[in-house]
Amino acid sequence: MPTASSSKASLFMPNHKISGFTYIRNGFEYGYPFLQSIQSLLPLVDELVVAVGKSHDGTGDAIRALGSNKIIIIDTLWDETLREGGKIFAQQANIALDAITGDIGFHLQADEVLHENDYDSIREAIQQLRTHPLAEGILFNFLNFYGGYHYTGSTRKWHRKEIRIIKNSPNIRSYRDSQGFRYYPSVKAYLEGHPGRKLNVLYVNASVYHYSYARDPATMQKKNNYFNSFWHDDNWLRKNNPSSANFDYNRVDFVIPFTGAHPLLMEPLVKRQHWEFTFDSSKSKFTPKGRILHWIEKKTGWRIGEYKNYRIVGTVKTS
After folding, report:
1. Are strands 180-183 and 197-198 parallel, antiparallel or unpaired?
2. Domain map of the chain by residue range?
3. Cα(44)–Cα(38) distance, rounded to whole angstroms?
4. For residue 20, with 0-12 CB atoms within 10 Å meaning exposed, 13-18 middle and 19 or more buried, which class applies?
5. Rg of the Cα atoms in the chain
């Protein structure tokens, strides 16, 4: 299994090359828009490393069929014993990360897609990252779709921003369940459980379109049960995984209508949505605490105690 290359002797890679990296297993079975994700990243990178877990639904073949000479596939076996805190996802992200050769690493997860209208801003952000004396990564906005393609999450349960571009250093590793990244004293310290430190980042006004909850209810339920298996043991799964065949999208605190335009790559999937979800705010599933905090946020714009796995040291200036 690939590890951090000894060739990465300097703090950051000196060559000017942008490397994408991602991971996926059984993407079709669990409804990931992984092909759209990969295709949205290809125009921005010189190479794209994909860690493809052993699959039975043709995932690897479909990626190869894209026919891009930028794509480098690493075949992996997922360790089913890594069932604490989603560690398997960080492990797979790091396998792909360790194989990149550029000075810049650009990570997308398999349900995340970039919008073509943001490409110029992203390219400018990468140039500014390369010359910034403190910045180690780039922070993106997130649009978290829920129930389909017509609503997005708007409460504290959804992360509004996250790091998706990093300078390539062996000391920067995928954090927790691969939601973001942190800097560690060494790979050994990371593997031994060192907490690491938050990265210094530049904020760019560009969005990652996150389609984690945009599957049909049956596929969403299947994916949700599968995802839980990488967080919890069998006893928890027997007690907590729903027996219903369909995911209940109505069990949500609050979402808002999406009035923008999806990436062009996603338009065929948007048009093919064959299930309906309409949010009824009178039935929102807030906890008492959540309702108060949401009210404060709506009135003041302040999200109390918001999780921020980064330190913003500048904002990308675009023309």
Report:
1. antiparallel
2. 12-319
3. 11
4. buried
5. 19
Pairwise CA distance, residues 193 & 175, whole Å: 11
- Distance CA(283)–CA(278), nearest Å, equals 11
Token pair, residue 197, equals: 């430190």
Tell whether the model's pLDDT for residue 311 goes beyond 80: yes
Could you read off the pLDDT of 210-249 as tens digits, one per residue?
999 999 999 999 999 888 877 777 777 777 777 678 999 9
Contact of 119 with 180, CB cutoff 8 Å: no
pLDDT of residue 180: 95
Query: Which residues in 190-280 belong to E strands, given as ranges?
Result: 197-198, 200-213, 255-257
**228 and 247 Cβ atoms separated by less than 8 Å:** no
Q: Which residues pair with 112 in a beta bridge?
A: 210
The percent of residues above 70 in pLDDT, for the chain, comes to: 95
For 70, the token pair is: 């930028």
Q: d(Cα 223, Cα 261) in Å, to the nearest integer?
A: 26
